[in-house]
From TrEMBL:
Alphabetized Gene3D superfamilies for the sequence: 2.40.280.10
Keyword Cytoplasm: yes
The UniProt record lists the keyword RNA-binding: yes
Region of interest called Disordered, as start-end residue ranges on this chain: 131-157
Compartments, record wording: Cytoplasm
Gene it is expressed from: smpB
Family designation: Belongs to the SmpB family.
GO BP annotations, alphabetical order: trans-translation; trans-translation-dependent protein tagging
Described function: Required for rescue of stalled ribosomes mediated by trans-translation. Binds to transfer-messenger RNA (tmRNA), required for stable association of tmRNA with ribosomes. tmRNA and SmpB together mimic tRNA shape, replacing the anticodon stem-loop with SmpB. tmRNA is encoded by the ssrA gene; the 2 termini fold to resemble tRNA(Ala) and it encodes a 'tag peptide', a short internal open reading frame. During trans-translation Ala-aminoacylated tmRNA acts like a tRNA, entering the A-site of stalled ribosomes, displacing the stalled mRNA.
GO molecular function: RNA binding
Protein name listed in UniProt: SsrA-binding protein
GO cellular component: cytosol
Record PANTHER family: SSRA-BINDING PROTEIN (PTHR30308:SF2), TMRNA-BINDING COMPONENT OF TRANS-TRANSLATION TAGGING COMPLEX (PTHR30308)
Alphabetized CDD domains for the sequence: SmpB
Amino acid sequence: MAKKPEPSSRIADNKKAAYNYFFEEKFEAGMVLQGWEVKALREGKVQLTDGYVVIKDGELYVIGCQINPLKTASTHVNPDAVRTKKLLMHKDEIRRLIGKVEQKGYTLVPLNLHWKAGKVKCEIALAKGKAEHDKRDTIKDREGKREVERAMKSRHR
């Protein structure tokens, strides 16, 4: 029997997060998924940009992470694309996060979904929101880097 190739490690990224937040710390959490969701993730049918993490009853949940069902989903399953998904972390890590999130201005943001040893993991970050002028600085830095890359590329021709 031929061994199945490992799917690419990265499933989805939240590119808006780096624009809207400063990251203080990053954590990796497991994700509780249904079978149809795992199949959809393998096909890349996920959107993470509107997602955020909440703490309810001492547990972490991702809200707004959209996993679109495949057209071949079973008829006995009722797929919900925006279902709230539970994150799995150690109790002591969750307690530490609760203490940090209660501080003013901190929130938990999902950064990406990736495969690790055949399991889906969600990288979350303890983040602080950027002010409007910080966002403008981010745009200015990105455009400056782009111009430098263009100049270097045209110079090497």
